[in-house]
């Protein structure tokens, strides 16, 4: 049964954060070759030049963040198809923040440059504002949510589960190495935001939210 209730208009979110270029140095890259053969022995280098195994937890952490970024990109396109332009723009900002997070995770703290892209406490707080903004008119939950209803809902749920995995990997990494105090909180808030956004695209589209029904099996 489709929802027929009138959905209150959601006020536009004030994005007052300074442009990234004012906080961080823009990348200076020239990517001309797709393959280099440098990693054929299962090793790679961190930003500081340290050579480590591709199976290292640090590589696993920012590799999973990269996977998360790809899924958010798919969700962003699905949001645009449903004309959720504001949310698509928010997701685009998140994609850039995830590359900043990857830069942080690919660098040992002692090698981190002050102008190097990274996630900050301000980014964590911005996610909290997004959560409050998109959650304010959602119906109260009476059960756990099952992914389904429309495509962006499913893709945002998929991104949420990958985000949780990235968070778990970073927790394991932080138990053996210093990774700063923003990576884990950022991923934690982002997973919450992805959950809220997955519900919002259902509500805004007038679709039915799929809830867990234990006896419907």
Low-confidence stretches: 1-9, 16-21
* Sheet/helix structural class: mainly alpha
**Percent of residues in β-strands:** under 5%
Given the structure, what is the number of helices?
6
Mean pLDDT: 84
User: In the CATH hierarchy, what is the superfamily of the domain at 55-136 and 145-205?
Assistant: Cobalamin adenosyltransferase-like
What order do the strands of the largest sheet run in, or round the barrel if closed? 1-2
CATH fold label of the domain at 55-136 and 145-205: Hypothetical Protein Ta1238, Chain: A
The main β sheet shows up as: 2 strands, antiparallel
Feature tags:
mainly alpha, elongated, 6 helices, 217 residues
Can you characterise this structure?
The chain is an all-alpha fold and 217 residues long. The protein has a domain of 143 residues: Cobalamin adenosyltransferase-like (Hypothetical Protein Ta1238, Chain: A), CATH 1.20.1200. The longest helix is centred in the N-terminal third of the chain and has 25 residues. Helix 2 packs antiparallel against helix 3, helix 2 runs antiparallel to helix 5 and helix 5 packs antiparallel against helix 6. The protein is 52% helix and 3% strand. It contains 6 helices and 2 strands, in the order H-E-E-H-H-H-H-H. A two-stranded antiparallel ribbon has the order 1-2.
């Amino acid at each position: 049964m489709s929802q027929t209730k009138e959905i209150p208009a959601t006020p536009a979110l004030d994005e007052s954060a300074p442009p990234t270029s004012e906080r961080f140095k823009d990348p200076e890259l020239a990517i001309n070759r797709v393959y280099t053969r440098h990693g054929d022995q299962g090793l790679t280098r961190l930003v500081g030049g340290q050579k480590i195994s591709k199976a290292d937890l640090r590589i696993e952490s920012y590799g999973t963040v990269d996977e998360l970024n790809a899924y958010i990109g798919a969700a962003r396109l699905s949001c645009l198809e449903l004309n959720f332009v504001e949310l698509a723009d928010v997701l685009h900002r998140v994609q850039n923040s995830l590359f900043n997070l990857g830069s942080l995770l690919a660098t040992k703290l002692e090698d981190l440059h002050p102008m190097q892209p990274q996630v900050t406490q301000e980014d964590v707080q911005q996610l909290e504002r997004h959560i409050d903004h998109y959650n304010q008119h959602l119906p109260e939950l009476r059960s756990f949510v099952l992914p389904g209803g429309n495509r962006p809902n499913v893709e945002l749920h998929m991104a949420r589960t990958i985000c949780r995995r990235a968070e778990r990997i970073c927790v394991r990494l932080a138990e053996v190495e210093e990774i700063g105090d923003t990576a884990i909180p950022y991923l934690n808030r982002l997973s919450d935001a992805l959950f809220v956004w997955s519900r919002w695209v259902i509500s805004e589209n007038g679709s039915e939210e799929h809830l867990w029904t234990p006896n419907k099996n």
